[in-house]
Prior knowledge:
By secondary structure, the protein is α/β, with parallel strands linked by helices. The chain is built from five helices and eleven strands, in the order E-H-E-H-H-E-E-E-E-E-H-E-E-E-E-H.
Amino acid sequence: MVQTVAIEQLTLYDxxxxxxxxxxxxxxFFAEWQRVLPALSxxxxxxxxxxxxxxxxxxxxxxxxxxxxxxxxxPLLDLAGLFLxxxxxxxxxxxxxxxxxxELKLRGRLDVLVLKEQLWVLVIEAKRAEFSxxxxxxxxxxxxxxxxxxxxxxxxxxxxxRSFVFLKQVERQYARSKELILDQDEGxxxxxxxxxxxxxVVAGENGRLGN
Length: 211
């Protein structure tokens, strides 16, 4: 009998035991976020100041998932050029993963932004009891595993609006960036720079495939 599990219930242990996912600690595996990053213009930096101000205002009241997407995530996607071709954005996709033994099926309809099927953005609700981004990391890895089979790397961003962690997955291996904080050490600017970097990598890889 096939057991069905909701992706929202996934843990990293589940992904390791049931699907053979393994974390890579070698920095060279996910070097993209550590390379020289794209410079930001004065206009982009000014926009980020407004995003930080908007977040600070919302934080004083109620940080709901949809509000975070409007105030923080949408401006980042816009500034990174991810609303424009060759990218596209979809939400609430149904995804399904089945183990090779067909004994376990993961299913979920999740609030995920999918960009060109290689770059995923997951927003977790900032007021959840498990405020840490750790609750979102196994979820986005699960979605990435459900993407069409490809040897190309997949990238993900998990955020609660204030903290950001990037992920890279190649087949059954993954690595993560350090956690970036919106109002610490230029965390929001670095998040945008990394997002732009990954967008350029994904666009370049897909361009080469089309040639």
